[in-house]
Write a structure and sequence with these properties.
The structure holds 2 protein chains of 2 kinds. By secondary structure, chain A is mostly helical. Chain A is built from 11 helices and no strands. Chain A has a domain of 153 residues. The chains are: A mainly alpha, B mainly alpha.
């Protein structure tokens, strides 16, 4: 990580400091941006009757916002554990893809692989990839991972404690905290008409099946059917 | 007890999935079907989750204060409002609609 890539030539102290400052600021901004999501996750989890220890365990070990939110939303709605865990795992598959990318980029060995895998998520991957041209991927990856990990866990605890003190999710509007957060997270992926259609199709299929299948199952059915349709149409 | 089971399986499963990327040969993930599936999966699952969280209560389709919150979130995301603004405004709208 101290060696700049050969095609960029040796770096001056000033340019290295500029790199480091840029990475630190971005890592902190990204960490700050996950805190509202962590707060709502903590609050929603408590409403779903998870204990404080369970909520914290999810943020410390599972450490993947979308999977965690899906898990507690479905449990909170009275869904089956199969649907809740199944949806969380399917949403976790993309971290595996990021892992392949990070592995190729940073080539970790030994125990570092395990630590690196645990913090390979949307944010750390995006930062590592975006700094690959400056040769600063490793610093970008670890800074972002640390910032997000700490702030995500702190905001989870605060959300769980505050959520406990608040009233029912409907009177506080917390019942739309998850959906609103997801719309904001999905927006960058919904730039093409085709992806919007896929998202709408998946939602429609899920809603149609709500009255006839167990709670939680519509999310798996909608999500998987829409992907299958996309692959068939693409052929 | 069941809740603990769900939490632990989800934790273990997601950790294994993260590690898999560092061990599975990357050419297995490079096929076009795998790539497109994995790209679309988060979008379809999260949109289904949004739809169900807003328009369903148990096994019933419902239209209530949550829909107002969702509409505000959609508008704010379309005009590129910051994340925190989107979440807080959506919650406030849903709470206000519920109180009416």
């Amino acid at each position: 990580m101290s060696e700049p890539p050969p095609d960029h030539g040796p770096k001056s102290d000033a340019s290295r400091r500029a790199d480091e400052r840029r990475i630190r600021n971005r890592a902190l901004t990204i960490g700050a941006s996950v805190t509202p999501f962590g707060l709502s996750f903590g609050a929603v989890s408590v409403e779903a009757h998870l204990s404080l220890v369970q909520v914290c365990l999810l943020s410390l070990v599972l450490f993947s916002g979308a999977s965690q939110f899906a898990l507690v939303s479905i449990i909170g709605a009275g869904g089956t554990y199969f649907s809740a865990v199944g949806t969380a795992l399917l949403l976790g598959v993309r971290n595996g893809l990021y892992g392949a990318r990070i592995n190729a980029l940073l080539r970790p060995t030994g125990w570092r692989r395990f630590v690196m895998a645990e913090v390979t998520i949307d944010e750390s991957t995006a930062m590592a990839v975006s700094e690959s041209r400056s040769g600063r991927s490793a610093r970008a990856f670890w800074s972002t991972a640390l910032s997000v990990y700490v702030l995500w866990n702190v905001s989870t605890v605060v959300g769980a404690l505050v959520g406990n003190a608040l009233g029912s999710p409907a009177t506080t509007g917390l019942d739309v905290a998850g959906p609103a957060a997801f719309i904001a997270l999905l927006a960058p992926r919904l730039t093409t008409a085709r992806m919007r259609l896929v998202a709408l199709g998946s939602s429609a299929i899920a809603l149609v099946t709500v009255p006839v299948v167990p709670i939680g199952a519509p999310i798996l059915i909608g999500g998987l059917t829409a992907v299958a349709l996309l692959l068939v149409v693409d052929r | 007890m069941k809740l603990w089971f769900g939490v632990l399986i989800a934790c273990a499963g997601c950790a294994v999935l993260k590690l898999a990327g560092f061990v599975v040969p990357s050419r297995l993930l490079e096929s076009s079907v795998a790539r497109r599936t994995l790209e679309a999966l988060p979008v379809t699952l999260l949109s289904a989750l949004i739809a169900v969280s807003v328009f369903a209560t148990g096994n019933h389709l419902t239209l209530d204060s949550r829909a107002a919150g969702l509409a505000v979130a959609l508008i704010l995301v379309a005009i590129r409002a910051p994340f925190l603004v989107v979440v807080v405004a959506a919650c406030a709208t849903a709470a206000a609609a519920h109180a009416l």
